[in-house]
Amino acid sequence: MPDLDQQRFVLGLTGGIACYKSAELLRRMQDHGADIDVVMTEAATHFMTTTTMQALSGRPVYTDAWDSRVSNSMAHISLTRGARAVLIAPASADFIAKLAHGMADDLLSTLCLARGACPLLIAPAMNREMWEHPATQRNVAQLRADGVMILGPGTGDQACGEVGDGRMLEPQQLLQEIIAFVQPKPLAGKTVLITAGPTAEKIDPVRVISNRSSGKTGYAIARAAYEAGAKVILVSGPTALPAPYGVPRIEVETAAQMHAAVMSQARSCDVFIAVAAVADWHVVNASDNKIKKTAANQPPALQFAPNPDILAEVAQMPGGPWCVGFAAETESLHDNAQAKRQRKGVPLLVGNLAQDSMGGDATTFVLFDDDGMEELPRLSKIEAARRLIDAIAKRLPDRA
Ligand code: CTP
Known about the structure:
alpha/beta, Rossmann fold, 8-stranded mixed β-sheet, 14 helices, about 25% strand
Protein backbone atom coordinates (compact mmCIF):
# COMPACT_ATOMS: atom_id res chain seq x y z
CA MET A 1 0.00 0.00 0.00
CA PRO A 2 1.39 3.48 -0.81
CA ASP A 3 2.77 5.30 2.23
CA LEU A 4 0.22 8.15 2.13
CA ASP A 5 -2.67 6.11 0.74
CA GLN A 6 -6.08 7.75 1.17
CA GLN A 7 -4.70 10.45 3.41
CA ARG A 8 -5.73 14.02 2.73
CA PHE A 9 -3.36 16.90 3.39
CA VAL A 10 -3.79 20.66 3.21
CA LEU A 11 -0.74 22.09 1.44
CA GLY A 12 -0.32 25.81 2.19
CA LEU A 13 1.92 28.01 0.07
CA THR A 14 3.11 31.40 1.31
CA GLY A 15 5.19 34.05 -0.47
CA GLY A 16 8.62 32.78 -1.45
CA ILE A 17 10.54 31.69 -4.50
CA ALA A 18 10.55 28.13 -3.10
CA CYS A 19 6.90 27.91 -4.24
CA TYR A 20 8.25 26.36 -7.43
CA LYS A 21 9.39 23.35 -5.39
CA SER A 22 5.91 22.92 -3.91
CA ALA A 23 4.51 21.81 -7.26
CA GLU A 24 7.03 18.97 -7.30
CA LEU A 25 6.32 18.16 -3.64
CA LEU A 26 2.61 17.90 -4.40
CA ARG A 27 3.38 15.49 -7.25
CA ARG A 28 5.62 13.28 -5.11
CA MET A 29 3.01 13.17 -2.34
CA GLN A 30 0.41 12.13 -4.90
CA ASP A 31 2.75 9.37 -6.10
CA HIS A 32 2.46 7.99 -2.57
CA GLY A 33 -1.33 8.08 -2.64
CA ALA A 34 -2.06 11.44 -0.93
CA ASP A 35 -5.00 13.70 -1.79
CA ILE A 36 -4.09 17.35 -1.51
CA ASP A 37 -6.07 20.55 -1.06
CA VAL A 38 -3.95 23.59 -1.87
CA VAL A 39 -4.37 26.90 -0.09
CA MET A 40 -2.26 29.86 -1.20
CA THR A 41 -1.72 33.27 0.34
CA GLU A 42 -1.95 36.31 -1.89
CA ALA A 43 1.87 36.60 -1.77
CA ALA A 44 2.27 32.98 -2.93
CA THR A 45 0.26 33.71 -6.08
CA HIS A 46 3.05 36.08 -7.17
CA PHE A 47 5.43 33.11 -7.31
CA MET A 48 3.15 30.30 -8.51
CA THR A 49 -0.18 30.39 -10.30
CA THR A 50 -3.29 28.86 -8.83
CA THR A 51 -3.87 27.30 -12.26
CA THR A 52 -0.67 25.24 -11.95
CA MET A 53 -1.55 24.00 -8.48
CA GLN A 54 -5.14 23.30 -9.49
CA ALA A 55 -4.07 21.34 -12.57
CA LEU A 56 -1.61 19.28 -10.52
CA SER A 57 -3.85 18.67 -7.50
CA GLY A 58 -6.99 18.07 -9.55
CA ARG A 59 -8.90 20.07 -6.95
CA PRO A 60 -9.96 23.70 -6.52
CA VAL A 61 -7.23 25.93 -5.07
CA TYR A 62 -8.24 28.23 -2.23
CA THR A 63 -6.83 31.73 -1.80
CA ASP A 64 -9.64 33.77 -0.35
CA ALA A 65 -11.47 33.62 2.98
CA TRP A 66 -14.53 34.97 1.14
CA ASP A 67 -14.51 32.28 -1.59
CA SER A 68 -18.08 32.10 -2.91
CA ARG A 69 -17.50 28.56 -4.27
CA VAL A 70 -17.61 27.23 -0.71
CA SER A 71 -21.34 27.18 -0.02
CA ASN A 72 -21.15 27.90 3.71
CA SER A 73 -18.11 30.24 3.39
CA MET A 74 -16.33 28.01 5.91
CA ALA A 75 -13.28 26.82 4.00
CA HIS A 76 -11.18 27.87 7.01
CA ILE A 77 -12.99 25.20 9.03
CA SER A 78 -13.95 22.49 6.59
CA LEU A 79 -10.56 22.05 4.86
CA THR A 80 -8.78 20.80 7.98
CA ARG A 81 -11.57 18.55 9.23
CA GLY A 82 -10.55 14.97 8.43
CA ALA A 83 -7.17 16.11 7.05
CA ARG A 84 -4.08 14.17 8.19
CA ALA A 85 -2.08 17.39 8.56
CA VAL A 86 -1.59 20.93 7.34
CA LEU A 87 1.79 21.40 5.67
CA ILE A 88 2.97 24.94 4.96
CA ALA A 89 5.71 24.79 2.32
CA PRO A 90 7.20 27.28 1.83
CA ALA A 91 6.57 29.04 5.14
CA SER A 92 7.80 32.64 4.88
CA ALA A 93 9.22 34.64 7.80
CA ASP A 94 6.09 36.79 7.72
CA PHE A 95 3.78 33.78 7.86
CA ILE A 96 5.76 32.20 10.70
CA ALA A 97 5.43 35.48 12.62
CA LYS A 98 1.69 35.44 12.02
CA LEU A 99 1.38 31.84 13.22
CA ALA A 100 3.42 32.56 16.34
CA HIS A 101 1.08 35.39 17.27
CA GLY A 102 -2.16 33.63 16.39
CA MET A 103 -3.08 36.14 13.70
CA ALA A 104 -5.87 35.27 11.31
CA ASP A 105 -6.12 37.84 8.56
CA ASP A 106 -6.31 35.58 5.52
CA LEU A 107 -7.63 32.11 4.70
CA LEU A 108 -4.41 30.17 5.42
CA SER A 109 -3.63 31.80 8.77
CA THR A 110 -7.29 31.53 9.84
CA LEU A 111 -7.34 27.87 8.85
CA CYS A 112 -4.20 27.22 10.93
CA LEU A 113 -5.77 28.88 13.96
CA ALA A 114 -9.00 26.93 13.53
CA ARG A 115 -7.41 23.57 12.79
CA GLY A 116 -8.05 22.02 16.22
CA ALA A 117 -6.15 18.73 16.62
CA CYS A 118 -5.03 18.62 12.98
CA PRO A 119 -1.19 18.63 13.12
CA LEU A 120 0.74 21.53 11.56
CA LEU A 121 4.07 21.05 9.80
CA ILE A 122 5.98 23.97 8.35
CA ALA A 123 8.95 24.13 5.98
CA PRO A 124 10.58 27.54 6.44
CA ALA A 125 12.07 29.23 3.38
CA MET A 126 13.76 32.61 3.53
CA ASN A 127 16.99 34.55 3.24
CA ARG A 128 19.60 33.49 5.82
CA GLU A 129 19.56 36.88 7.61
CA MET A 130 15.79 36.65 7.96
CA TRP A 131 16.11 33.09 9.32
CA GLU A 132 18.84 34.04 11.79
CA HIS A 133 17.08 37.19 12.98
CA PRO A 134 16.22 36.91 16.69
CA ALA A 135 12.58 37.69 15.91
CA THR A 136 12.29 34.71 13.54
CA GLN A 137 14.15 32.44 15.95
CA ARG A 138 11.82 33.56 18.75
CA ASN A 139 8.79 32.86 16.59
CA VAL A 140 10.07 29.44 15.55
CA ALA A 141 10.80 28.53 19.18
CA GLN A 142 7.26 29.58 20.07
CA LEU A 143 5.82 27.42 17.29
CA ARG A 144 7.86 24.43 18.47
CA ALA A 145 6.56 24.99 21.99
CA ASP A 146 3.03 25.08 20.51
CA GLY A 147 3.60 21.61 19.01
CA VAL A 148 4.25 22.70 15.42
CA MET A 149 6.73 20.48 13.59
CA ILE A 150 9.48 22.46 11.85
CA LEU A 151 10.95 20.75 8.78
CA GLY A 152 14.41 22.14 8.02
CA PRO A 153 15.33 24.63 6.81
CA GLY A 154 18.14 23.40 4.61
CA THR A 155 21.42 25.13 4.07
CA GLY A 156 23.27 26.19 0.92
CA ASP A 157 22.87 28.55 -2.06
CA GLN A 158 19.95 30.92 -1.85
CA ALA A 159 17.93 32.52 -4.66
CA CYS A 160 19.22 35.93 -3.51
CA GLY A 161 22.82 34.82 -4.17
CA GLU A 162 23.77 34.46 -0.50
CA VAL A 163 24.75 31.18 1.13
CA GLY A 164 23.53 29.88 4.50
CA ASP A 165 20.57 28.47 6.45
CA GLY A 166 17.07 29.19 5.25
CA ARG A 167 16.50 27.24 2.03
CA MET A 168 13.37 25.18 1.92
CA LEU A 169 14.15 21.46 2.10
CA GLU A 170 14.09 19.70 -1.25
CA PRO A 171 10.77 18.06 -2.23
CA GLN A 172 12.29 14.59 -1.78
CA GLN A 173 13.47 15.46 1.74
CA LEU A 174 10.07 16.93 2.64
CA LEU A 175 8.41 13.83 1.26
CA GLN A 176 10.59 11.61 3.48
CA GLU A 177 9.68 13.78 6.49
CA ILE A 178 5.96 13.56 5.72
CA ILE A 179 6.12 9.80 5.27
CA ALA A 180 8.03 9.59 8.56
CA PHE A 181 5.40 11.78 10.20
CA VAL A 182 2.57 9.34 9.37
CA GLN A 183 4.43 6.23 10.57
CA PRO A 184 3.90 4.88 14.11
CA LYS A 185 6.61 5.83 16.61
CA PRO A 186 7.47 2.65 18.58
CA LEU A 187 11.14 3.72 18.96
CA ALA A 188 10.51 7.29 20.17
CA GLY A 189 13.25 8.27 22.61
CA LYS A 190 15.56 5.42 21.58
CA THR A 191 18.95 5.68 19.92
CA VAL A 192 19.70 3.12 17.23
CA LEU A 193 23.14 2.41 15.81
CA ILE A 194 23.25 0.67 12.42
CA THR A 195 26.10 -0.62 10.27
CA ALA A 196 25.46 -0.93 6.54
CA GLY A 197 27.13 -1.62 3.23
CA PRO A 198 30.35 -3.49 2.51
CA THR A 199 33.80 -2.86 3.88
CA ALA A 200 36.78 -2.42 1.59
CA GLU A 201 40.11 -3.85 2.69
CA LYS A 202 43.16 -2.25 1.16
CA ILE A 203 45.58 -4.25 -1.01
CA ASP A 204 47.45 -1.18 -2.24
CA PRO A 205 46.46 2.48 -2.85
CA VAL A 206 44.33 1.56 -5.90
CA ARG A 207 43.04 -1.93 -5.07
CA VAL A 208 40.69 -3.24 -2.39
CA ILE A 209 38.98 -6.49 -1.46
CA SER A 210 35.28 -5.86 -0.99
CA ASN A 211 31.93 -7.57 -1.53
CA ARG A 212 28.67 -7.06 -3.41
CA SER A 213 26.67 -5.47 -0.58
CA SER A 214 24.82 -2.42 -1.97
CA GLY A 215 23.89 -1.05 1.46
CA LYS A 216 20.20 -0.88 0.45
CA THR A 217 18.94 -3.09 3.29
CA GLY A 218 20.90 -1.25 5.99
CA TYR A 219 19.86 2.15 4.64
CA ALA A 220 16.21 1.08 4.50
CA ILE A 221 16.46 -0.04 8.14
CA ALA A 222 18.07 3.29 9.09
CA ARG A 223 15.19 5.10 7.40
CA ALA A 224 12.58 2.91 9.05
CA ALA A 225 14.16 3.43 12.49
CA TYR A 226 14.14 7.21 11.90
CA GLU A 227 10.50 7.03 10.81
CA ALA A 228 9.76 5.09 14.01
CA GLY A 229 10.96 8.07 16.05
CA ALA A 230 14.48 6.91 16.93
CA LYS A 231 17.65 8.95 16.84
CA VAL A 232 19.66 6.98 14.31
CA ILE A 233 23.41 6.79 13.72
CA LEU A 234 24.46 5.08 10.52
CA VAL A 235 28.00 3.72 10.16
CA SER A 236 28.39 2.96 6.49
CA GLY A 237 30.96 1.31 4.28
CA PRO A 238 31.38 2.62 0.73
CA THR A 239 28.04 2.80 -1.12
CA ALA A 240 26.49 4.94 -3.83
CA LEU A 241 23.44 5.71 -1.65
CA PRO A 242 22.53 9.10 -0.17
CA ALA A 243 22.09 9.10 3.63
CA PRO A 244 18.41 8.93 4.59
CA TYR A 245 17.24 12.45 5.49
CA GLY A 246 17.64 13.10 9.22
CA VAL A 247 20.19 10.32 9.75
CA PRO A 248 23.81 11.34 10.42
CA ARG A 249 26.23 9.05 8.62
CA ILE A 250 29.75 8.09 9.66
CA GLU A 251 31.54 6.97 6.52
CA VAL A 252 34.18 4.26 6.85
CA GLU A 253 36.06 2.02 4.51
CA THR A 254 37.71 -0.82 6.39
CA ALA A 255 36.38 -3.22 9.01
CA ALA A 256 38.86 -1.70 11.50
CA GLN A 257 37.40 1.78 10.88
CA MET A 258 33.86 0.40 11.18
CA HIS A 259 34.84 -1.31 14.43
CA ALA A 260 36.30 1.92 15.85
CA ALA A 261 33.25 3.99 14.80
CA VAL A 262 30.82 1.48 16.33
CA MET A 263 32.77 1.17 19.58
CA SER A 264 32.80 4.96 20.00
CA GLN A 265 28.98 5.10 19.73
CA ALA A 266 27.65 1.78 21.02
CA ARG A 267 27.59 2.46 24.74
CA SER A 268 25.15 5.36 24.40
CA CYS A 269 22.76 3.43 22.13
CA ASP A 270 19.69 1.37 22.99
CA VAL A 271 19.79 -0.85 19.91
CA PHE A 272 22.60 -2.00 17.61
CA ILE A 273 21.63 -3.47 14.23
CA ALA A 274 24.60 -4.96 12.38
CA VAL A 275 23.60 -5.10 8.74
CA ALA A 276 27.02 -4.47 7.18
CA ALA A 277 28.74 -7.18 5.21
CA VAL A 278 32.01 -6.88 7.10
CA ALA A 279 35.10 -8.44 5.58
CA ASP A 280 36.31 -11.32 7.72
CA TRP A 281 39.98 -10.61 7.00
CA HIS A 282 42.24 -7.72 6.11
CA VAL A 283 45.51 -7.78 4.21
CA VAL A 284 48.44 -7.56 6.62
CA ASN A 285 51.03 -6.83 3.98
CA ALA A 286 49.08 -4.18 2.06
CA SER A 287 51.44 -2.10 0.00
CA ASP A 288 51.88 1.68 0.34
CA ASN A 289 52.60 1.85 -3.37
CA LYS A 290 50.75 0.34 -6.29
CA ILE A 291 51.83 -3.28 -6.73
CA LYS A 292 53.42 -3.67 -10.16
CA LYS A 293 53.45 -6.83 -12.24
CA THR A 294 56.72 -8.71 -12.00
CA ALA A 295 58.57 -9.97 -15.07
CA ALA A 296 57.31 -13.47 -14.30
CA ASN A 297 53.78 -12.10 -13.69
CA GLN A 298 53.65 -13.74 -10.27
CA PRO A 299 50.47 -12.92 -8.29
CA PRO A 300 51.25 -10.99 -5.07
CA ALA A 301 51.56 -13.13 -1.93
CA LEU A 302 48.86 -11.50 0.18
CA GLN A 303 48.74 -12.40 3.85
CA PHE A 304 45.51 -12.10 5.78
CA ALA A 305 44.63 -11.57 9.43
CA PRO A 306 41.13 -11.74 10.96
CA ASN A 307 39.08 -8.60 11.53
CA PRO A 308 37.35 -7.99 14.85
CA ASP A 309 33.81 -9.35 14.99
CA ILE A 310 32.00 -6.08 15.65
CA LEU A 311 28.60 -7.60 16.41
CA ALA A 312 29.93 -10.26 18.79
CA GLU A 313 31.97 -7.65 20.62
CA VAL A 314 29.06 -5.24 21.07
CA ALA A 315 26.80 -8.13 22.14
CA GLN A 316 29.23 -8.89 24.98
CA MET A 317 29.54 -5.29 26.15
CA PRO A 318 28.24 -5.02 29.74
CA GLY A 319 25.23 -2.67 29.70
CA GLY A 320 25.55 -2.45 25.93
CA PRO A 321 22.75 -2.05 23.40
CA TRP A 322 20.20 -4.72 22.47
CA CYS A 323 21.77 -6.38 19.43
CA VAL A 324 20.35 -7.54 16.13
CA GLY A 325 22.50 -9.49 13.70
CA PHE A 326 22.10 -10.34 10.06
CA ALA A 327 22.98 -13.47 8.16
CA ALA A 328 23.00 -13.35 4.39
CA GLU A 329 23.41 -16.99 3.46
CA THR A 330 23.44 -18.75 0.12
CA GLU A 331 22.20 -22.11 1.47
CA SER A 332 20.83 -23.84 4.60
CA LEU A 333 19.49 -20.53 5.89
CA HIS A 334 17.75 -21.97 8.93
CA ASP A 335 20.68 -23.99 10.30
CA ASN A 336 23.30 -21.37 9.50
CA ALA A 337 21.25 -18.53 10.95
CA GLN A 338 20.42 -20.23 14.27
CA ALA A 339 24.05 -21.31 14.67
CA LYS A 340 25.22 -17.78 13.91
CA ARG A 341 22.78 -16.31 16.43
CA GLN A 342 24.18 -18.55 19.16
CA ARG A 343 27.78 -17.84 18.13
CA LYS A 344 27.30 -14.08 18.11
CA GLY A 345 25.23 -14.11 21.32
CA VAL A 346 22.42 -11.90 20.02
CA PRO A 347 18.72 -12.07 20.96
CA LEU A 348 17.52 -11.54 17.37
CA LEU A 349 19.09 -12.53 14.08
CA VAL A 350 17.64 -11.73 10.67
CA GLY A 351 18.32 -14.24 7.96
CA ASN A 352 17.92 -13.79 4.25
CA LEU A 353 19.15 -15.55 1.16
CA ALA A 354 21.89 -13.47 -0.46
CA GLN A 355 20.78 -14.38 -3.97
CA ASP A 356 17.24 -13.21 -3.12
CA SER A 357 18.20 -9.86 -1.64
CA MET A 358 21.67 -8.57 -2.52
CA GLY A 359 21.56 -5.41 -4.65
CA GLY A 360 17.80 -5.75 -5.26
CA ASP A 361 14.89 -3.66 -3.96
CA ALA A 362 12.94 -6.50 -2.30
CA THR A 363 13.81 -9.07 0.33
CA THR A 364 12.41 -11.84 2.50
CA PHE A 365 13.42 -11.57 6.15
CA VAL A 366 13.36 -14.59 8.44
CA LEU A 367 13.56 -13.66 12.12
CA PHE A 368 15.31 -16.05 14.51
CA ASP A 369 15.04 -15.66 18.27
CA ASP A 370 14.66 -17.79 21.41
CA ASP A 371 11.10 -18.67 20.40
CA GLY A 372 12.09 -20.04 16.99
CA MET A 373 11.69 -18.50 13.59
CA GLU A 374 9.21 -16.24 11.81
CA GLU A 375 9.28 -15.73 8.05
CA LEU A 376 8.03 -12.35 6.85
CA PRO A 377 6.51 -12.07 3.37
CA ARG A 378 8.63 -10.91 0.45
CA LEU A 379 8.44 -7.12 0.62
CA SER A 380 10.14 -4.00 -0.68
CA LYS A 381 13.19 -3.27 1.47
CA ILE A 382 11.58 -0.26 3.18
CA GLU A 383 8.45 -2.27 4.02
CA ALA A 384 10.53 -5.21 5.26
CA ALA A 385 12.60 -2.74 7.30
CA ARG A 386 9.46 -1.27 8.91
CA ARG A 387 8.29 -4.77 9.87
CA LEU A 388 11.69 -5.50 11.38
CA ILE A 389 11.71 -2.25 13.36
CA ASP A 390 8.30 -3.13 14.70
CA ALA A 391 9.53 -6.60 15.68
CA ILE A 392 12.54 -5.06 17.44
CA ALA A 393 10.38 -2.51 19.30
CA LYS A 394 8.12 -5.34 20.54
CA ARG A 395 11.08 -7.34 21.85
CA LEU A 396 13.06 -4.46 23.32
CA PRO A 397 13.40 -4.80 27.10
CA ASP A 398 12.88 -1.71 29.25
CA ARG A 399 16.24 -0.19 30.09
CA ALA A 400 16.79 1.34 33.48
N1 CTP B 1 29.62 -8.96 11.54
C1 CTP B 1 30.32 -8.01 12.25
N2 CTP B 1 31.68 -7.99 12.20
C2 CTP B 1 32.36 -8.89 11.47
C3 CTP B 1 31.65 -9.87 10.72
C4 CTP B 1 30.28 -9.86 10.78
O1 CTP B 1 29.71 -7.17 12.92
N3 CTP B 1 33.66 -8.84 11.44
C5 CTP B 1 28.16 -8.99 11.64
C6 CTP B 1 27.41 -8.69 10.36
O2 CTP B 1 27.14 -7.30 10.25
C7 CTP B 1 26.15 -9.52 10.52
C8 CTP B 1 26.62 -10.73 11.30
O3 CTP B 1 27.81 -10.30 11.98
O4 CTP B 1 25.21 -8.87 11.33
C9 CTP B 1 26.90 -11.93 10.48
O5 CTP B 1 27.82 -11.64 9.49
P1 CTP B 1 28.43 -12.80 8.56
O6 CTP B 1 29.48 -12.21 7.70
O7 CTP B 1 27.29 -13.49 7.90
O8 CTP B 1 29.00 -13.72 9.68
P2 CTP B 1 30.35 -14.35 9.88
O9 CTP B 1 30.55 -14.44 11.35
O10 CTP B 1 31.40 -13.66 9.10
O11 CTP B 1 30.10 -15.82 9.33
P3 CTP B 1 30.36 -16.47 7.89
O12 CTP B 1 31.09 -15.46 7.07
O13 CTP B 1 31.13 -17.68 8.21
O14 CTP B 1 29.00 -16.80 7.36
